[in-house]
Amino acid sequence: MADASPSYRIQGATGEWEVVIGLEVHAQIDTQAKLFSGAATAFGAEPNAQVSLIDAAMPGMLPVPNRECIRQAVRTGMALGAEINRWSRFDRKNYFYADLPQGYQISQLYHPLVGEGAIPIEPEEKDGPGEAKTIGVERIHVEQDAGKLMHDQHPTRSYVDLNRSGVALMEIVSRPDMRSPAEAGAYLRKLRQVLRYVGSCDGNMEQGSMRADVNVSVRKPGEPFGTRTETKNVNSVRFVMETIRQEASRQVDVLEAGGSIVQETRLYDPDRNETRSMRSKEDAHDYRYFPDPDLLPLELDDAFLSECAASLPELPDAKRARYEALGLTPYAAAVLTADVETARWFEAMLDASGKPPESVAKAASNWLISDLFGALNRLGKDIADSPVSPAQGAQLLGLVADGTLSGTLAKQVFEIMLETGDDPATIVEARGLKQTSDTGAIEAKVAEILAANADKVEQYRGGKVALFGFFVGQTMKAMGGKANPQVVNEAVKKALG
Asked: Mind telling me which Gene3D superfamilies this protein's record contains (predicted)?
């Protein structure tokens, strides 16, 4: 692993400081049921409407692992090139809190389901200094979520909502390989991208289905790691990056004032853009971990692992390389693969064209990124809500390719498609927007234009060749933009001699 990026440093009174970052990402596994019960997991349900007797820790209730949760965690590990442990075990993490009805959390400390993997990243320039590098993933373990305390429902009491209690989480633990906020942002975006491609988590940080615990320490370059703090449950990429900036600066100020960093758990306040202390940070022994006596170890066989591997889709890095091989620019390939919904839309458009991908990919890419994205941005929609389907987009480009529509007419048809949802061929037929290649009609119109502009014809023949474009433009205007530009060019050239 790359160890340090020289491009990001905190300037203190005593010199430069380096920041060391690790992320523990909690990703809710995208299934219809919880990790150890059949209760639903849909977001936004009424409080305590999705709670089984197991989730509420009623006496005598025994957990049964959800096979799909294990499958999705294994598929995620495979997508990250991680080691899959054929034998793993659940442990009890003991602590007492109002939203944890069991008095313990079922997790995996000693024998996680997934071992070491890696995530290649490329930080974005807008985020600040950072390097293209590979970030190590230490482990992925499966655990159940706790419930949620609601403090805003009553002036003197807190209420407990157990809908999230027992929801399956993957805790994806990175190595402390990141050295700048930009690298942490790139890591989190890349991880979310992979999870969405795999389908194991929807990556919705606003709804809490993906959140990050941010571990930060500082040191003088080349010195051993310093004491780290952990800022809990940060729910956006931007807030993760701000947490790192604020917490690292705070630590530098403390150390340069002669103080020491306390290992503790902190919270990020986005309104004040600062971190603040929550509680002292516990160590593993404080939780008194021991193997869960109600659950047998997980033992994965060859058939299960083979099915998991076979079910993986083409992953973003491979898809991006394939798009570049089709002739797309690196920028276009990156845009089209950044989000799985965009990639699926583009693939569907290529399929609907009925032509070899390499022959239509460039035109389809240009249209999707400029025309469709521009329209969706104007309408406040994302691609999943596009009023134009991939098949309609392919049909529109097909009408341009076969000469039925000029570029100008295609833009007119596209605007009508956005308003009506009609197919482009239907719009062309109903509104008479078909491009004409009638040579006789075009030549007649050219003759009229030249006759009306005899002075400019003389200027052209006297050497002012730039007027050629004027004659072409006038002809296109006279024909309502419906003339084939290539035929118009040829007709003008012929008429001018």
From this structure: 1.10.10.410
